[in-house]
Amino acid sequence: MRTGSQPVVLGLPENPYPGIEGTTTWKASDALPPCAVGFVSGSMIFSCSMIDPGHPCVTISGSASFIGSPPPPGLSDEELSTYEQLRTFFATHVAYGLIAGTRPETLYGLADSPIALAAFMLDHGDGLGQPGLVQQVLEDRLEKPSDLTRDDILDNITLFWLTNTGVSSLRLYWEFKGAFFGAKGVTIPVGVSTFADEIYRVPRSWAEQAYPNLVYYNQHDRGGHFAAWEQPQLLSEDVRATFRSLR
What we know:
Number of helices: 11
Strand order of the largest sheet: 5-6-7
CATH topology of the largest domain: Rossmann fold
Strand content: 5-15%
Order of helices and strands: EEEEHEHHHHHHHEHEHH
Number of domains: 2
C-alpha cells in the first residue's frame, strides 16, 4: 500500500482463512513488517501481546474495547449505549463462538452441507450489520451505500465450501483462551475505526484506555463487523490516515 508517494508494508494477521489453512498462524517470535493491520480476530492477536510492545507497528480494528459488569457509575450516554450493545451481544449473539470454542466437532455439518454452511455464514450473530446488510444486498434494497454485492457473498461461501474449511477456520475460538474485547494497556501506536453496525460502537474514551498510544480514531455511519468486506474504501482511507500520522 502507498500513503501518498510513500509505500507501506502491511502485515494482516488473522485467524486462518479458507484455502490457506495452517499457513497463517502468527507467534510472538515471528518477524513482523513495519506496519500491521488487524481486523476482527487480528485485533485480538495484536492486543494479546503477540508483538513486542516496542515494535513500530500499527493496528486498526473495529473490535477494540473492554467492558465491566455491572456498569460502573458515571458512564456517558455514548458509553452506556455501548455497554448495552455488549450486554446484548453476550446474552444473545455469542453462542456460535461458545460452541466453536468448546465443542467444535459438533459443527461438522458445515463440512457436510453447503446449505448449512451458507446459513451459518449469512446469520451467525456477528453484529447488527449481519445478516442485515447481507439480507439487503440479496434483496436488492440497500439502506446505506456499500460495495458488497451478491457475487461477493456467493464467492465467500464458495471459497469456504470448495476448500472444506468451514469448520477449521473457526479454530481460533478453540485456541484463544482470553476474554472477548479484553485489550488494555497496549503501548504501540494504534488507529481505531468503528462502524455503525458493528457488534458495538467503541467510544473514543474506551479506545484511549485500551490503547494509550491512540494516534487515530474515526467513527463511520455505515459498515459492520466485516468492514473490509462491506466498506473497503472507508477502511483503506483510515489505514492511510493512521500511517500518515506516523511519518
